[in-house]
Amino acid sequence: MFIEIVFTGLPIDRDEVEEALEAAFGPDGEITGTGSGMGRCHLDLEIEAGVAPGAATERLRAVLTDLGIEEYASFEVSARPAPEVPHRMLSSQDSPPRPARRGAGAPSHHGHT
What we know:
Mean pLDDT: 81
Number of helices: 2
Low-confidence stretches: 85-99
Shape: globular
Largest sheet: 4 strands, antiparallel
Order of helices and strands: EHEEHE
Structural class: alpha+beta
Radius of gyration: 26 Å
Strand order of the largest sheet: 2-3-1-4
Strand content: 25-35%
Number of strands: 4
Helix content: 10-25%
């Protein structure tokens, strides 16, 4: 199971939240991604398959409440994480080949007698 937690205007450092979640979930969960910007930040929490969704969200809510940040958080639970999309620079070789123009490669006979 995968839980994406989004914080808006988080009044504490995100690292404190990560540490609290890691302590609460132990081997049952792992922070697999983080990000921040524009007054928001997020944590991706992957939960082991044997943990019931209700138990996981209860644990999450307890951590948020203990830290006093539940009003700054929203989260979405899904069965599995979104597939990773590799990020890389594209080169001209990544473009599909252009179709050949009509007559390309054939000698032109226009204007020759």
